Automatic annotation (TrEMBL):
InterPro entries membership: Cro/C1-type_HTH, Lambda_DNA-bd_dom_sf, MFS_trans_sf
Lineage: superkingdom: Bacteria
Species, as recorded: Gordonibacter faecis
SMART domains, alphabetized: HTH_XRE
Name the record gives this protein: Helix-turn-helix transcriptional regulator
Transmembrane spans: 82-103, 109-128, 169-190
Domain HTH cro/C1-type: 7-61
CDD domains linked to this entry: HTH_XRE
Sorted UniProt keywords: DNA-binding, Membrane, Transmembrane, Transmembrane helix
Amino acid sequence: MELGKHIKEYRTERGLSQEDLAERIYVSRQTVSNWETDKTYPDVESLLLLSVLFDTTIDELIKGDVETMKDVLKNDAQKMQAYATVGMVIAFAGAVLFVGGIGFWNWGIVPSIIIGLLVWGFGMYLLLKVELMKRAHDVVTYRELVAFSKGEPIDRNNPKSQRARQHRVIKTIILLIVALAFGLVVGGLIGTSMSPYAG
């Protein structure tokens, strides 16, 4: 693949760091790094911005890499959809096994927790893979995800996309804390209602 090499050459010729380039075309530094190492490929909008910034044509940037790029992006979009669907189903199955093991099948609390967590954990692993792929392609909002899955240009300049890219780490930590608190409350309620000492 030549595209990653071309991006790096044009970037260094202009004295830009990966972070400088990322800021100018509205992507993350990691995304630029992934392009330069051929881990991922720019979408159409990013290619347009790169060609304007580097004062070259898109043809010069991609030189014969078009079909490979289309195949990789299409495959990644299909993988993301498959991982998301299967991950959600498996995570839900883990929750059903946990509740069913305690309430219906009389497996006992410990086996139900172990089986439920193992199945649920595998579903979460697949959903984590989806998040990593979204990050690699710098896809943040639902609208961007839909455009990416259809192979359409991704608009990262709209206010919603720019807001979604602010404080991503803090938002992720808050979401994890809320999910953990919710899990603890639900687990506590289930445990209390199953307790032999409950009213």
